[in-house]
């Protein structure tokens, strides 16, 4: 097994390239051909945006509410902290009690931040 | 299953170096030529990710975990930067209704 | 280390104190916190400790610079009185960000591993991005925030690329181990291109942060747009911590590879001095002049960086202390005056000598100190830097610096002329009692540094 791992040459990746070209080629082929051979009929109903059968309302390019944005920002922060949890969890036994206490301190800081955010009213939706 | 560092090492180190440098340069060119604050910001993220990739490659080649730990810190710091940066950009958008940096010319010498 | 823990907990505590109704209690509490940190920090003197697998070393160097940045913050705080009077909603957050950014500053002066340098720089910078744009309705402040953010994170990217290349060449992030690798390589005349590029990128990244030319372009714009209170913090704490970190990197890691970076840094020092001083002459706005002045002081500090002997550490320490005290005094007065007269140009100071003799006197002394007149701290700061450079036989560099210091007289003295020789452009400027005390303290400190420099000139 070790021998195969070290003998990859750039030419070994040729099948991937061929596969890639084939996939791309098929997509382009399908798009072009359907455009050419498909019938084109326009009507008001047919050109309208289809939204699960419900009549569509307004423009799709309207500004998104500020609330979504705040939630997204909070998500980014709290989401990324997990990368520190992952290596800790892998080495949980090796790090022992000291590592556990350190992680508790870390999570406490995070939770204090979370509590602060909630208390500040950022997650209040009116 | 091979160890992941071994898999990384099957590709010569120069390839990682050239690839990361190319990404990094694309990021720099983007920062210097684009005029939209959000796109500039994305280019900066691209620079950081080029750095992450190179760190991982070096780390695997030297069998030294320090480089990968550094990547975690870069990711965490980049997330903090994203939050602050997006908040600043939104603040400007609310005041000016635009994120084009050419509008920002109040401060000149 | 204790000061890092204390500052972090105080910062978090302070965020929650901010939920209380009364805004008056916050500033005295923060001053108390900082005083505790200052004392706790000094108790570690002569007792070198390492933490986090040798990633942080709290030695006398770190303690001295921590003392400078904490003291500067204590002296800046009284000038936030107007925020308290206006019942600013974000007051507690501002103070907490200042406390958190101090943590970053301490990490920058105590680091032993490039990871800590990076995290320290980022903690400091991210707090500063927020504070630069903290005046949310003011377009100039918005613009300053965005410019600082984009430039700062761009510089971070470059710095990181440099760190990675150094790691690739040497296989370590510890600055002492990088040193042996760098020395070995440059002795063999086989300087690894990776190491050379890494050093170059790191230099560019840090020069961005300490606003050394030719990477200074953001400085005047950002400083002008930033609220004056935070500018006082930015132009002192960031610079002191930045140069301490810069010096540590160069002296510990790349002392052996001196032939690679020495010419580059000399050129940068000359350009920084020229751009800072000549740019400052052209300004009509006092605030913008102070921004250029901070660039020119970065130039003087770079000379200390270049001289590179046992004196330069002390010279950087003494210079940053003297510079920080005078700059905080000058910008504090600007804040008080601009709040009342709504103007940051030289004209705002017209006739201040008649309406507020105390403010005018303090301003005069701090301008003299910045210009480097004898009997003030700034004079001995420059003297120590020049004498350190003289040992390194950098005579022509000293002559350039002295010429540029002479240019400095022109723009520093313009304020003094405006204060004493023009008709008053407004009424008496109200000054709070804490701010008065801080101003008097800074004046006394400037004189102490200028009359008895021996007290602090040889402590490192």
Automatic annotation (TrEMBL), chain A:
It is found in: Cell membrane; Membrane. InterPro entries: NAD(P)H_OxRDtase_bac/plastid (IPR023043), NADH_UbQ/plastoQ_OxRdtase_su3 (IPR000440), NDAH_ubi_oxred_su3_sf (IPR038430). The keyword Transmembrane applies. Its EC number is 7.1.1.-. GO terms for cellular component: NADH dehydrogenase complex; plasma membrane. Keywords: Cell membrane, Membrane, NAD, Quinone, Translocase, Transmembrane, Transmembrane helix, Transport. It is a multi-pass membrane protein. HAMAP family: NDH1_NuoA. NDH-1 shuttles electrons from NADH, via FMN and iron-sulfur (Fe-S) centers, to quinones in the respiratory chain. The immediate electron acceptor for the enzyme in this species is believed to be a menaquinone. Couples the redox reaction to proton translocation (for every two electrons transferred, four hydrogen ions are translocated across the cytoplasmic membrane), and thus conserves the redox energy in a proton gradient. NDH-1 is composed of 14 different subunits. Subunits NuoA, H, J, K, L, M, N constitute the membrane sector of the complex. This is NADH-quinone oxidoreductase subunit A. It comes from Adhaeribacter rhizoryzae. The lineage of its organism: Bacteria, Pseudomonadati, Bacteroidota, Cytophagia, Cytophagales. The gene is nuoA.
UniProtKB/TrEMBL annotation, chain B:
GO terms for biological process: ATP synthesis coupled electron transport. One of its GO terms (molecular function) is quinone binding. It is an enzyme of class 7 (translocase). Belongs to the complex I subunit 4L family. It is found in: Cell membrane; Membrane. Its main location: membrane. The gene is nuoK. Its EC number is 7.1.1.-. This is NADH-quinone oxidoreductase subunit K. Keywords: Cell membrane, Membrane, NAD, Oxidoreductase, Quinone, Translocase, Transmembrane, Transmembrane helix, Transport. The chain crosses the membrane at residues 13-32, 39-58, 70-93. InterPro entries: NADH_UbQ_OxRdtase_chain4L/K (IPR001133), NUOK/Mnh_C1-like (IPR039428). It catalyses: a quinone + NADH + 5 H(+)(in) = a quinol + NAD(+) + 4 H(+)(out). One of its GO terms (cellular component) is NADH dehydrogenase complex. The keyword Glycoprotein does not apply. Pfam families: Oxidored_q2 (PF00420). NDH-1 shuttles electrons from NADH, via FMN and iron-sulfur (Fe-S) centers, to quinones in the respiratory chain. The immediate electron acceptor for the enzyme in this species is believed to be a menaquinone. Couples the redox reaction to proton translocation (for every two electrons transferred, four hydrogen ions are translocated across the cytoplasmic membrane), and thus conserves the redox energy in a proton gradient. NDH-1 is composed of 14 different subunits. Subunits NuoA, H, J, K, L, M, N constitute the membrane sector of the complex. It is a multi-pass membrane protein.
From TrEMBL, chain C:
It is an enzyme of class 7 (translocase). It is found in: Cell membrane; Endomembrane system; Membrane. This is NADH-quinone oxidoreductase subunit N. The chain crosses the membrane at residues 25-45, 57-79, 91-109, 115-134, 146-170, 190-208, 229-248, 260-282, 289-309, 315-337, 358-388, 394-413, 434-456. It is a multi-pass membrane protein. One of its GO terms (molecular function) is NADH dehydrogenase (quinone) (non-electrogenic) activity. Belongs to the complex I subunit 2 family. NDH-1 is composed of 14 different subunits. Subunits NuoA, H, J, K, L, M, N constitute the membrane sector of the complex. Keywords: Cell membrane, Membrane, NAD, Quinone, Translocase, Transmembrane, Transmembrane helix, Transport. It catalyses: a quinone + NADH + 5 H(+)(in) = a quinol + NAD(+) + 4 H(+)(out). NDH-1 shuttles electrons from NADH, via FMN and iron-sulfur (Fe-S) centers, to quinones in the respiratory chain. The immediate electron acceptor for the enzyme in this species is believed to be a menaquinone. Couples the redox reaction to proton translocation (for every two electrons transferred, four hydrogen ions are translocated across the cytoplasmic membrane), and thus conserves the redox energy in a proton gradient.
């Amino acid at each position: 097994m070790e021998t195969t791992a070290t003998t990859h040459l750039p030419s070994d990746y040729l099948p991937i390239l061929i596969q890639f070209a084939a996939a791309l080629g098929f997509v382009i082929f399908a798009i072009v051909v359907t455009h050419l051979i498909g019938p084109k009929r326009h009507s008001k109903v047919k050109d309208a945006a289809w939204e699960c059968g419900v009549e569509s309302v307004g423009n799709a390019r309207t500004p998104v509410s500020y609330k979504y944005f705040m939630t997204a920002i909070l998500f980014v922060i709290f989401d990324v902290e997990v990368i520190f949890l992952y290596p800790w969890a892998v080495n949980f036994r090796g790090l022992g009690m000291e590592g556990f206490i350190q992680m508790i301190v870390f999570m406490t800081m995070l939770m204090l931040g979370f509590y602060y955010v909630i208390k500040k009213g950022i997650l209040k939706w009116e | 299953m091979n160890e992941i560092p071994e898999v990384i090492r099957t590709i010569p180190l120069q390839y990682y170096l050239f690839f990361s440098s190319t990404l990094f340069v694309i990021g720099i060119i983007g920062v210097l030529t684009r005029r939209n604050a959000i796109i500039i910001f994305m280019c900066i993220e691209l620079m950081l990710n080029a750095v992450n990739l190179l760190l991982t490659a070096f780390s695997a080649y030297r069998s030294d975990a320090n480089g990968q730990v550094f990547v975690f810190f870069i990711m965490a710091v980049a997330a903090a930067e994203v939050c602050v940066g997006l908040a600043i950009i939104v603040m400007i958008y609310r005041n000016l209704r635009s994120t084009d940096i050419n509008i920002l010319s109040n401060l000149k010498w | 280390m204790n000061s890092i823990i204390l500052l972090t907990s105080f910062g978090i505590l302070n965020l929650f104190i901010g939920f209380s109704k009364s805004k008056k209690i916050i500033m005295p509490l923060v001053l108390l916190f900082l005083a505790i940190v200052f004392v706790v920090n000094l108790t570690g003197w002569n007792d070198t400790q390492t933490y986090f697998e040798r990633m942080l070393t709290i030695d006398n160097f770190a303690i001295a610079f921590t003392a400078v940045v904490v003291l500067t913050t204590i002296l800046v705080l009284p000038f936030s009185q107007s925020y308290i009077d206006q019942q600013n909603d974000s007051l507690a957050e501002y103070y907490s960000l200042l406390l958190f950014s101090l943590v970053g500053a301490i990490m920058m002066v105590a680091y032993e591993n490039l990871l800590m340098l990076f995290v320290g720089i980022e903690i400091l910078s991210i707090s500063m991005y927020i504070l630069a744009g903290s005046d949310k309705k003011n377009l100039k402040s918005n613009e300053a925030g965005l410019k600082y953010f984009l430039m700062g994170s761009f510089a971070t990217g470059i710095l990181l690329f440099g760190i990675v290349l150094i790691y690739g060449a040497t296989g370590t992030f510890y600055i002492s181990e990088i040193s042996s690798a760098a020395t070995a390589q440059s002795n063999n005349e086989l300087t690894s291109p990776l190491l050379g590029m890494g050093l170059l990128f790191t230099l560019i990244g840090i020069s961005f942060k300490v606003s050394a030319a030719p990477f200074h372009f953001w400085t005047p714009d950002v400083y002008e747009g930033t609220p004056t209170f935070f500018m006082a913090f930015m132009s002192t704490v960031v610079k002191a911590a930045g140069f301490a970190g810069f010096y540590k990197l160069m002296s510990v890691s790349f002392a052996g590879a001196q032939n690679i970076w020495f010419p580059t840094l000399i050129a940068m020092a000359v350009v920084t001095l020229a751009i800072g001083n000549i740019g400052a002459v052209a300004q009509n706005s006092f605030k913008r002049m102070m921004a250029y002045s901070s660039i020119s002081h970065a130039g003087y500090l770079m000379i200390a960086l270049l001289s590179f002997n046992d004196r330069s550490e002390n010279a950087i320490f003494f210079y940053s202390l003297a510079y920080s005290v005078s700059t905080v005094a000058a910008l504090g007065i600007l804040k008080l005056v601009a709040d009342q007269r709504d103007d940051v140009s030289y004209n705002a100071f017209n006739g201040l000598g008649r309406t507020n003799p105390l403010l005018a006197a303090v301003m005069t002394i701090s301008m003299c100190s910045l210009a480097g007149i004898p009997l003030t701290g700034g004079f001995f700061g420059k003297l120590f830097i020049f004498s350190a450079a003289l040992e390194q036989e950098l005579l022509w560099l000293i002559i350039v610096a002295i010429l540029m210091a002479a240019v400095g007289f022109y723009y520093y003295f313009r304020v003094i002329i405006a204060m004493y020789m023009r008709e008053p452009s407004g009424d008496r400027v109200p000054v709070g009692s804490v701010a008065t005390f801080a101003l008097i303290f800074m004046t006394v400190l400037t004189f102490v540094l200028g009359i008895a420099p021996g007290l602090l000139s040889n402590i490192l």
